[in-house]
Each structure stands twice: as C-alpha cells, then as structure tokens.
Amino acid sequence: MSSLQALCSGLPLRPLPENRGRQAGVPHAPVRTPSLSLEEKQLALRNALRYFPADVQELLAPEFAQELHLYGHIYMYRFCPDIEMRAYPVEQYPCQTKAAAAIMHMIMNNLDPAVAQFPQELVTYGGNGQVFSNWAQFWLTMFYLSKMTEEQTLVMYSGHPLGLFPSSCSAPRLVITNGMVIPNYSSRMEYEKLFALGVTMYGQMTAGSYCYIGPQGIVHGTVLTVLNAARRYLGIEDLAGKVFVTSGLGGMSGAQAKAAVIVGCIGVIAEVDKAALEKRHKQGWLMEVTDSLDRCIQRLRSLWKGLQHSVIAAPGWAGVPVALRLCVLSYLVNLAPLGKGRCLAPSGFSRPLPVRGAPVLLLCPSREARKRKEVLSLGYHGNVVALWERLVHELDTTGECLVDLGSDQTSCHNPFNGGYYPVQLSFTEAQSLMASNPAVFKDLVQESLRRQVSAINRLAKEKFFFWDYGNAFLLEAQRAGADVEKKGAGRTEFRYPSYVQHIMGDIFSQGFGPFRWVCTSGDPQDLAVTDELAASVLEEAIADGVKASVKLQYMDNIRWIREAARHRLVVGSQARILYSDQKGRVAIAVAINQAIACRRIKAPVVLSRDHHDVSGTDSPFRETSNIYDGSAFCADMAVQNFVGDACRGATWVALHNGGGVGWGEVINGGFGLVLDGTPEAEQRARLMLSWDVSNGVARRCWSGNQKAYEIICQTMQENSSLVVTLPHKVEDEQVLQQALQL
C-alpha cells in the first residue's frame, strides 16, 4: 500500500503499478457515449499518453484504448492509488506550506469512498461531478502541492495541473477553472466529446473545487428548505405527521433522509440504485428500507392509527340528518362546515356522498394522534414515478392524499447519462440501454418525465405542494413536453416554483447562505470547539439586536448547530455547515482564527462555502431564478466573485461552467480560505468574506429586491468604504405605458 510520501513523489513509472482495472464491489459511473470518430479516438489516446514518457506508451496505449471503448473515457485505472483514500490529519502531508497540506486534505476527502459517489472514476457527486479527469492528474497535483512554496501558484485547467507559476505570498496558492468552454460550443453533445478527449471537465460545484464536505452540506440546506416550505405552504412550524416525498439517495440527494428526521416529518425517498440506498441505511440516515409500494402505502396509512374511525350510521346518530352529522364532525376537526350532499374525505376535502345505502366513513384525528410525534425516513427501492403514480391511485380510489410536500433530487441536469432512470426499465436494463441505444433511452426518459409530472399535477389539485429543487427537473420536463407551463410567466418560471423563487430566495437576498469549515486536524474535538464558537457568535448577535427576519434565520441555525453532533452528520472530513449572513460569517471566522492562535483548536481550519450561495452562482433556473430585471441569464456576478475573492486573500479560488442544473446552464465559483491563527489570516477573512456576500446582495438589490436593498443599505451604514449604486423605483407604471405608445 502506498504512503502519503509516495503519493507526493510524482507519477509512479518505474516500476509501473499493477493494472488492477475496475474494482469490484464499489459503485461505478455509467458508461459514456461520446460518439467519437476514429480521428477523435486517436486524439483522445494521444492526449492521455502525453502524461507519460515514450518508453511506457506502448504498454499503456492498448489499455487506455480499451477504457475509451468500454467506458467512453480514459480514467487510467492502473494509476488508481493503492492507499486508504481519506482526509488525513494535515500535519501528515509532506508539504512546504500549510495551505498546500490543507488543499491535499480537501482533495483526498473528495475521493474518499465513504464520500465519493464513484471513487474510481474520480466522481464526487451528482453522477458526473469530477475532481479530476484521470488519475495521472491526481498524482501530478499532489506532487506539485508538496513542492509548492508561498511564492508560487498552482494553476488547474479542468482537472489538468498546468504547473506551478511564480506569484506573491498574497496571491492565491491555487487557481482552478473547470469547463470554461466557448459559449457557442457549450452544449451537452460537445461536452461528452471534449471530456472524452480529456480537455475539459464538469466539476459540478464543490467536486472540482475540492470543497465538498459529504452530504452534510445538503442536509442542512434541505432542513432549511423543508422548514421554510412548511411555513410558506402549510402555515406551520411543527412538521410532525406531515409527509415529504422525493427521490434520490446519491452523493447529494442522500441527505434528504436525514433532513426528514431532523425536521421531524415523514420522509419517503425513492432510489433505483440499491447500492446507494443501502449506503444511506448503513449510515443510519434511512430508518427503514423497502422495495414494495404496498409497504410504502401501508407505512403511510399507519400514520392514521391514532385516528378515530367514526361510522356516521353508528348508534347515537339516529334521527340526525347526514348533512348535519357531517357539519358537526367537521367542526370538531376544525374544518369549514360541509355542504349538503358532501362527505369528509381523509385528505380533509369534501367529496360527493356515495350511493344511497353505502356506509360513510369519517376519519377524525384523536387527541392521541395529535400528541404523538411520528418521525420516519423510509427508503423505497424503486422508481419515483411508480411511487407518484401509486399515490395518485390511492387518492383516486380512497380520497386520501397521503403526501403534503414533494420535490425531486434526481441528477436531472444529466438526464440521459445516468442522472434520471426511466420508470419503464429496471436499473440494470436502463444502464445497458443508455450505452447501447442512447436515442431510445432518451425517448423513454422523456416519457417517464411526462408521466411523473402528470402524477404530480393530479396530486397538486389537493392540498399538496411541490417545488423544483434546482436539479433542472422542471426544465428537462418542459423539454420533454410535460405540462409544466405557467401561463404569462417569464422564461425562468414554471407551473411549480423553484425552491429559490419561493423558499430560499429571500434568504439569499438577506445575505444568508451555506458557510462551512473543515478542521484539518481530523480531530472531532476541534469540530466541537468550532460548533460552540459558531453558536455563541449567533446568540451574541441576537442579544445585540437584529431584525426579526434575521433573528429567525439565526435561530434555525443555532438549533442546527446545537443538534449537529447528536445527528452524526460527519461523513469524511471533520466539517460543519450553517447558513449565515455577512456579519455572522466574519464573526465566526474571527472567533475560529483566535481559537487556533491560542491552541484551543490544534490545526488550521479551512473556510469555504457551497457555490450555491448569495454571490457564487449565476443560474437562471436556480440561484438567480428570482432575479426579474432580465439579468438572470448574465454571469457577471459569479465571475466577479471569483476574481474578487482572489484579490482579497482567498487561499484558492475556482470558476466552473455547470453545476446543479447542468452543463451550459450555469456559471459558478467558490473559494477556500485557510485560517492558521495569524493576524494576516484574520484580515484576509474580514476582507474576503465581506466581499463574498456583499457582491451578491448588491446585485440582488440592483435587480429590484427590497430585502437586498435594505440589507445593503444597512451594510453601507456600518462600513463607510462600501458605496453601492442603488436603484430608483419606477413609481408610476403609466409612465412606461405612455412612453411606449409613441
């Protein structure tokens, strides 16, 4: 087995490592179908061999050609390291700088089999979110990082380490770009070809920027989304007894099961890949697993155990008109009186009375049921379309709507290459067909999307609420011809809102977003210290006085951070995430840096965030879908953020094409900032984190968002160096109408 020292010694060439091929028993990426010509295949092979000296090319060429033929890409399986891939304590890396060691820690975490979706294909999450394009790039990057000084910067071109370049100690140590393809050529078809050639890469968001922290990140985002969805759609704070149905238990979507338990609802999550489902069950994130739709429905119906079944014709009702009995009982369950000729359905809506003489059943919640707090995360091994259609069947045959909230977290940004599996095929049948006949597979996917939307539309006629989770589900459904149109809406709006438009958009506009950190010591005690520091910072901010809307977000995050250890959220590196605004992020960073300085925390801490944030991403169907001034399709914010973070002290920065909603649909960026306890680190954190939030709030303010306007004005009052152009509102819309009549 290799050591870290060997891992940092460059490509192993003499002798070459044994070619062990694909490892059995671990998940592997779907076969890609780039449709290369013979000349393009030769180019792909030539591009791969340029990492190796001439004396080994004759040996490597046939096996690389076989990989290209069998899998549609050259991963260089021979060079997959024979080492336990995980985030080692930072002091164990043979480096000249703390920053380089911290970056190595983050890279190896992204490739940890407990974290990565397809570790041998260097995919962290999302089905195709690459850390590198091949294993030669991994070895070279680790070598360069081990040699890097404080006056060098490592430059990464879509997974390829271009080299170490002279810079200054104030410059970033690492600059990453992923997928920066000329816009007119940034199509899916072109991507498959360019990736097969080894010249570009889809880094998702935090895969290719080395900042993924396992599914904990999306757990927190899902917790906040479901909590705020309940507030908006159901008008409640307590989700006990409410049912949330969704799909996906992979690298990101696997968080949904844990989030359901944390918010206290019943989560039913469909997943076609048995390995992914079993992984979440073994982690304890899924409480139950079944491959039976009957069992799913049975478990949902068991939630009615505490309900009192009252037959209207029971003794004591004799002589009382049926309509009056219904009115009395509907009053008892706090429902509006029902009209004559209607009965109460279990869904809470009135329905026509059955044929004369048929028994009428009323389901009335008892006190026992109201007091009982049922929490469940149920994994259904099967296709989510079948689950949605079964829920429609139950509604149509019994009158019961067994679901309150719904969404989807399939990797629909990549629907035709393993991101979405059609209901007509089994998992293995689908994998085979997508490789052997992509056109037929695409047709089945689009038919499946239409069926899924049809079922959701039927349920939405009841008191059920659905939202798009930013995975391009509604966008791909629209392209498939599904009924998702919203009449009179703009290009970024559909029949159902994205979670940014209705649920998280105002949170972003106030500067709140997914702030995170990693304790590079690998010591859980260091993480516990940071948890306490973060909670105390937010509590002190509340005590000092904040707006009610800000206080609500702080309270949600204090609850999260206080309960984080109990929920066993760490997978891989010792990391934590919470949503915070600019003031909170800076204060937490300063507190952590001071704790490192006085040795309460034993090693440097890496600050980062999801690219899915206030300023990090321009994505018209997700992060910027609530931008209505026409600039939702412009990417100035994300690019400026990347440049601005680099100028203000980030240890590394990344800029990506693609992420979340797919290739060519989004530009996004992120950063890593190493806190080492020095005054310089504190200064960098203050400057960079302030910019990293204010950039996005200012842009949202200029687009006309009132909450962002208020926040940026407050921030300018607190910092006289910040001067932002503020918009003037058109007070009289008739001015526009009259002007356009010319």
UniProtKB/TrEMBL annotation:
Name assigned to this protein: Urocanate hydratase
Domain Urocanase C-terminal stretches: 506-712
InterPro entries: Urocanase, Urocanase-like, Urocanase_C, Urocanase_central_sf, Urocanase_CS, Urocanase_N, Urocanase_Rossmann-like, Urocanase_sf
Swiss-Prot/TrEMBL keywords: Histidine metabolism, Lyase, NAD
Domain called Urocanase N-terminal: residue spans: 85-211
EC category: lyase
EC number(s) from the headed UniProt entry: 4.2.1.49
